[in-house]
Amino acid sequence: MFHPTSIAWFLGTWASLYLLDAFLKTNSTVSRRYLHFLHYSGLSVSIGQIRWYTTYFNRLLLRVGQWKPCWLQTWFTWGVYFGILAMFGAVGVLGMTLVNAVKQKPTEKQVLTPVMPGVNLPMNQISYYLLTLLVCGILHELGHAIAAVREQVRVCGFGLFVFAIYPGAYVNLYTEHLQAVSPMRQLRVYCAGVWHNFVVVLIAIAALVSLPWLLSLFYHTGNAVVITSVMEGSSVSGPRGLYVGDEVRSMSGCRVSSVTDWLICINGAMAARTSSGYCMPLPLLDKHNIALDVYTDASGTPQCCRNSSATHLCFLYHTRQASGAQRISHFSSVQKYACLPARTTTDRQPCHVQKDCFNPTVPHVCVVPSVDNSTKLLRVERRGNQALLFLGYPLDLHYAVTLSDYVPSYSFVPVHMPYIIETFCKYVISLSGALALLNVVPCYALDGQFILLALIELSLTSIVPNAEHRGSIYMLIMMFGTILLSANIVVAMWSLFVH
């Protein structure tokens, strides 16, 4: 959630900006120069909002809209087909979502989810969210502008705005020109925004799927993972911990060639009853087993390194001991402990059971760390650096680092670039898809309002010649669409803040 200090800064900034604007407009000394500045810069300030409007791009839009007019006509006609199909699809999806909510049927994923920074959007992701929202909004409005020029509708200007913290874009079209053209030409203009949003989604999906190929010159995948961030203050941070750029290849014998493999290794370590063991020569163990002070810690786990340095760890192992009379003797397993240097011990051959350590010349045993059930000793192998020994709950190791499948091929290549591209593509898919879905809903103040009006005039004029009757049909559908979208927003907000 938002911190109270952040809310105070947010409200204070907007209040100060609004008061400063009001003061400069009313002060006799600077008001004329300030109003002159606002007029020529295109800036305007209102409560919680800043706008910038310009006619500078009108000539550029005119050139683009007149480039290959036949091709552009076909392009925006495809947009009309998409807009009509998307309108029916959006109404169907929102209708099913609302019905499921009323019947209290669980859905795999919420279709309409409000995104609120500090609530369900991590603050470290807000830059991706705001940048994507701005880019998708600009491309949406450019679609309207280019289609308008193609249909000989005058474009008055283009603008950007920031409402609270949300950025956006808008285009100002000459209304009289737009209403004078045919319904089909109107549809090309009205559907162009959502059509461009859909095309952007397809481009982002293609970029995401082909990212390994696109980055193959600078990154390689399938052999290891690279650490892109380490949580400060975690058990693996610091001079002897993990570093950004470390190339991880295995974890306690579990091969790590992708982030998915890393998760499998973590889950395997948590599911295992004990940590992996290591083969040690029995004569060497006998030297470490002299005069050990074995005691039980707070968790009830035997320990034997009371007076040793932090580099040692208590290991347990089993040996066979004969008992009984000479002719009827039998062997029983005896559990013993040894305080061993953790690093040199884990350098040896790993084992799970005693037979993994069979040696015909020197007897070996499998030594296992003496820790509680939730604690594991993990050995993280990394290229070019000494292996990291992690003693703790495996999930803590997982949350302490962020990994990427894209390992830099050269030292000068940034490790974060694939993550930035990947995250931006995912946000584009989500937000641009949401803009396309919501804008086609027949609801007031959305593109769907104008798409529906033009569609009714195009398709029902010959069937319903009375304009008032067509207007009634339009109003009924608009009321239904507005109520449907509003109900979905209420349900989504309820799920976000109550559940």
TrEMBL record:
Question: Could you tell me which residue ranges the Peptidase M50 domain spans?
Answer: 128-477
| Enzyme superclass (EC) | hydrolase
Q: Name one Pfam family in it.
A: Peptidase_M50
Q: Which reaction does it catalyse?
A: Cleaves several transcription factors that are type-2 transmembrane proteins within membrane-spanning domains. Known substrates include sterol regulatory element-binding protein (SREBP) -1, SREBP-2 and forms of the transcriptional activator ATF6. SREBP-2 is cleaved at the site 477-DRSRILL-|-CVLTFLCLSFNPLTSLLQWGGA-505. The residues Asn-Pro, 11 residues distal to the site of cleavage in the membrane-spanning domain, are important for cleavage by S2P endopeptidase. Replacement of either of these residues does not prevent cleavage, but there is no cleavage if both of these residues are replaced
Q: Which UniProt keywords apply?
A: Membrane, Transmembrane, Transmembrane helix
Q: Name one GO biological process term.
A: membrane protein intracellular domain proteolysis
Q: Where in the cell is it found?
A: Endomembrane system
Segments passing through the bilayer: 6-24, 75-99, 126-143, 155-174, 194-215, 473-497
Q: Name one GO molecular function term.
A: metalloendopeptidase activity
Q: What is its EC number?
A: 3.4.24.85
Q: Which domain of life is it from?
A: Eukaryota
**UniProt-recorded name of the protein:** Membrane-bound transcription factor site-2 protease
Function according to Swiss-Prot or TrEMBL? Zinc metalloprotease that mediates intramembrane proteolysis of proteins such as ATF6, ATF6B, SREBF1/SREBP1 and SREBF2/SREBP2. Catalyzes the second step in the proteolytic activation of the sterol regulatory element-binding proteins (SREBPs) SREBF1/SREBP1 and SREBF2/SREBP2: cleaves SREBPs within the first transmembrane segment, thereby releasing the N-terminal segment with a portion of the transmembrane segment attached. Mature N-terminal SREBP fragments shuttle to the nucleus and activate gene transcription.
* The organism of origin for this protein: Ridgeia piscesae
Name a single GO cellular component: membrane
Look up and give the membrane topology term.
Multi-pass membrane protein
Its lineage reads: Eukaryota, Metazoa, Spiralia, Lophotrochozoa, Annelida
